[in-house]
Amino acid sequence: MSTVRIALAASRTGRGLLALWLVLPVVPLLLWAFADSWAFPALLPQDWGTRGLTEASAAGAGGALARSTLLGAAVALLATPLGAMAGRALASRQVPGSTAVLAVLLSPLVLPPFAVALGLDVLLLRLRVPATLGVVVLLVVAALPYTTITMRAAYAAHDRGFEDEARVLGATRWRTVRSVQLPLLAPALAGAAFLAFLVGWSDYIVTVLVGGGRLTTLPLLLASAASATGNDAQVAVLSLTSILPPVALLAVVGSLGRRGRR
Amino acid sequence: MSGGTLALTGLTRVHGPGQAPALEDFSLDVPAGSCVAILGPSGSGKSTVLRLTAGLDEPTAGTVRVDGADLSGVVPERRGMAMVFQRPLLFPHLDVRDNVAFADRVRGMPRRAARARAEEFLELVQLRGYGDRPARALSGGQEQRVALARALAAQPRVLLLDEAFSALDAALREEMHELLADLRMRLDPTILLVTHDHAEADALADAVAVLDEGRLLQEGTMRSLYARPASLAVSRLLGGRTEVAGVVRDGRHVSPLGALALPERVADGPGVLVVRHEAAAVTPPAEGDCTGTVVRLRRRGLRALVTVEVTGDGGTASVHAELGPGEEVPTGATVGLALPVADRWVVAAPTVVPEQPASPAEEVSRRR
């Protein structure tokens, strides 16, 4: 009985420490975001206020937030269906040389993004591809490994018998996708879309090099603010702005996943 | 609801270039309202027959007709069939009622009407009041009942059952057999079912087609197949145990068992005598058709199965016989064997074919 209690206590302590480990870095950010002045020896800011917020919005945080969201959404919207199709094909084992195909799809993980972006930038310029389109295309490629791996695992665990059954019962091919395949794969699709969104949301290198500085997203704004000195409150506000939307999204995806497993 | 007539003609299916056909020139008639079983071991191509019938795979050659209409090129959803697989495959995101209502819903029936009809079919499989449960909250037997209700609610012209009861334990399987017999009386569906179990085929089907390695070996009623198997392979698939090699001479089968009269005229030459163990009886020594020694006794409920070795001209032969309820014979005892003339049957001796190991490619496709 007592060993059970000890194990329970240990598990609780462990979870507490883990939560602390994740939350702790956010605490100074929260403090800084609302500190109008915070000189070194003081434990807490001397003056509270919203100067950071005003500065950040004056620097264009609102527009950057919108552009980052759009970029993440565009990457998720394109990379998720592509990854689902690739994952389904790879899981069906009907692709000749599927290991090689998988290796090609995973290569963006291995290649240094800086080199790839620099090299492709030249190519995209020569082809006269608009900068924003170039960013989206490159980031979709960068997101493909995540969506493909997620969806391949999902399709490997997916029983195609469900689709056969639905067809025989009178559902058209499209109706089967809508009424059977999508609901069964919804948790995996949400997870894949979330990862792809993050690729677009958090990218810096491709956006800078290929976007040519004209596409100002949150990471770009944050980096330029952080490289200057004396505006810690603004940097803190921008950092929080980049952290919170993905966390909120993760909560949504997580609850979807739980519903799918029920 | 009453079923249509299904006619399969010359069905052939080759899965890929260079592979042996999974099914070759298979023809079968399933009259309206009847239940026909396809019996075969795993990998015999019997599930392929159902997939071709349902339109889930395209035949390489041959036609599927329902009520005379050729279904070539007709997509599965327009064939008016329904299928129950070995796995229940209940849609996990729907509750039991919506699973049963699925066929009506995808055909455009309003939700309320489809659900009302689903309740009727749930009642038919004795699962009244289970409609609100999530599909995952059922036992194996209940799941398969729901799968059956879902298939019947589609009002199929032909109902296809692919080893539908094989995954259930013996008692549940028996229950499902009774349920199916009951449903046949009420709804008169046309059923084509696939099984590896000859007892299940016997319990459910009016007629049986025996399939092995993609070829139809024999078809007929189960009684006629038990009594007169066309080959040793059919006899074995039907659970026949006794096989005594010998020679047919002047209408008698000559073997270590002696010269035994046959019920029908059989051409002279080598032949294997088969006798169902249910028909063979153990008698006191010297009273039966031959005499031998009990070498093995296997208890199977009240009736035991004995193996008797008979030594005679040209060697030793094993005969299996079922004892009466409660009877026992010690191993080593000398007993007589009564082999009723009507239950003797001679099949062609197998031509010596070396065992062909399945090619790796076949193994893989089978496992899939």
UniProtKB/TrEMBL annotation, chain B:
- EC assignment: the record states 7.6.2.9
Say if the entry is tagged with keyword Nucleotide-binding. yes
- Entry keywords, A to Z: ATP-binding, Hydrolase, Nucleotide-binding, Transport
GO MF terms on file?
ABC-type quaternary ammonium compound transporting activity; ATP binding; ATP hydrolysis activity
Question: Which InterPro entries does the entry mention?
Answer: AAA+_ATPase, ABC_SmlMolc_Importer, ABC_transporter-like_ATP-bd, P-loop_NTPase
Pfam families annotated for this entry? ABC_tran (PF00005)
The ABC transporter domain, residue ranges: 6-238
Tell me the protein's name.
ABC-type quaternary amine transporter
Its source organism is uncultured Blastococcus sp
